[in-house]
Amino acid sequence: MTRYDAPDEDHQPLMWLRGHAIYAAYFIVLVYVASMLVTSVLLFANSAHLLTWAQFSSVEVLKGQIWRIFSYGFVNPPSLWFAVDMFMIAWFGRELEKIFGRQRFLRLFAGLYLLPPLLFTLIGLWRPMQFSGELGAFALFIAFATLYPNVVMFFSVPAKWIAAILVSINTLMALSNHDWVALISLWATTGFAYAFVSFEQGRFTLPSINFWQRKPKLRLLPDLKPTKTVSISVAKEDSMAEMDSLLDKIARSGMSSLTTKERAQLAKARESMMQKKGERS
Q1: Residues 165-175: what's their mean pLDDT?
Q2: How many CB atoms lie within 10 A of CB 243?
Q3: Which of 35, 54, 124, 260 has an alpha carbon within 20 to 30 A of 274's alpha carbon?
Q4: 168 & 261 share domain
Q5: What is the pTM of this model?
């Protein structure tokens, strides 16, 4: 089982209770179950109007009721599908937490929780959107199937095929019912889960864009003439090298060993040296 880069304690359970490991995914389930109980009590007491303050509504969010982006998931009437979702969070969330570590798992869950209301708030600029209830449990299964695509599950079918079948069925159900909230949230959360796991596996990297640091542009001042300066320095170095070679030859073989051309070069170098001395004096 591959373990991703994270401190060892980040892969460990939050606590142990009578020998049983308790993971962060279990606390998420506990919070959802508590919200289901509160929702059930309010419905029983004919106080369902209180739940409207927690439901997501793009119209109200755009008016400034920002808390609806965070509170929509706590309106959960009791149902069989709610129980299935809690099983998915507990089971697949626990496995993802073991592999990615607690911090990465919580980032994944936070992304799945906040993506739908943020997306529907943007869509709400053109068309009002409203929904409530937990949405990201199925996406955790998609994340697990992305991580372990060939794990055999129900009826000896690999996880990747079960994921493909369930996504297809849910898509067809949403299209047939014209349920655009279910369709958009399905593809948004499952796509985010797939991208998150693929990124953690190194299948792709995000582009790094640095808007703040700019390379300095080199600029030549108008009064500087680098070409002439370089040529003059190179000419001086060549003349000194020729002078040194002529002096070495005179020291070894005498003045008579110089050719006519070398004598002319020596005389020219001597004249230039005398001119420099005259200018200094």
Answers
A1: 96
A2: 17
A3: 260
A4: no
A5: 0.69
